[in-house]
Design a protein that fits this description.
disordered C terminus, 253 residues, globular, mainly alpha, 2% strand, two-stranded antiparallel sheet, 74% helix
């Protein structure tokens, strides 16, 4: 499980780094974007596809995998079509991607909450979760802009960059609390999106820091006890002690 965190971190970085190269809107750019996002979907399935009880794994894993593969199929439709210009296709792709990555983020947090110790691989998983949150925010902002044009004002670069690239930049600026002001909400929908995104990122960091600190402290305490040769002493069962006392009292009488 933990060995998949580093590949997940790398695959999350890929679409973020190559987005400027896909901003041409032509077939090579669309193909590159589809490739890197498809790799991210597959790696997400490998990392967080199975967790929980056996029944939960079998049922939810199949749904999660099926949905991920469906999202990949939708992602390649604009490549085959040759353009992202059709609003219906763009809205369907962005909405499905948003939902898939939101589910992935939640499953990743649940997975990190169950790790027995904190190491470099787990820290890579936490970093991947933060980057995935930023990328998901960009995808969700793109879907919001497609469904409700004018939700975001993107400045003079709006016609020079791919919409997903510009709004992914806005998402990371928002969750980092930078607020440069070159991309801003354009209406009430955009403002509510900014509120939800900033609150979600703050809660994610607070929750994850608490989880990892708890695991780190617990693992350190266990290591110290092991080095000192101190074994936990099982406390007597109060119910058993009560039963013994009752038997003793009955013998006295």
């Amino acid at each position: 499980m933990e060995r998949q965190f580093v590949p997940l971190l790398i695959t999350v970085l890929l679409p973020i780094l190559v987005l400027p190269e896909t901003a041409t809107g032509h077939r090579p750019g669309n193909t590159l974007l589809a490739i890197v996002v498809s790799v991210l979907i597959l790696q997400s399935i490998r990392t967080v596809g199975r967790h929980g009880s056996l029944v939960d794994q079998m049922f939810n894993h199949q749904i999660y995998v099926t949905f991920g593969l469906l999202v990949m199929l939708l992602l390649w439709i604009p490549v085959a079509w040759g353009s992202w210009q059709l609003p219906v296709i763009k809205a369907a792709v962005m909405a499905s991607l948003s939902l898939f990555f939101l589910i992935t983020s939640v499953r990743l947090v649940r997975l990190l909450a169950r790790v027995p110790r904190v190491n470099a691989q787990v820290m890579a998983g936490a970093a991947a979760g933060y980057l995935l949150l930023g990328f998901t925010g960009g995808v969700l902002a793109t879907a919001t802009e497609v469904f409700s044009p004018g939700s975001f004002l993107m400045g003079h670069l709006a016609h020079q960059q791919l919409l997903l690239d510009r709004l992914t930049y806005y998402s990371f600026v928002t969750i980092a609390g930078l607020g440069y002001g070159d991309v801003v909400p354009g209406n009430a929908i955009g403002e509510r999106f900014a509120i939800l995104l900033s609150v979600s990122s703050t809660l994610y960091v607070a929750l994850l820091v608490g989880l990892l600190m708890g695991r780190f402290i617990a693992s350190k305490e266990a290591l110290i006890l092991e080095e000192d040769g101190v074994l936990p002493v099982a406390l007597p069962d109060p119910s058993a002690r009560g039963a013994g006392d009752d038997r003793a009292e009955s013998r006295e009488f």
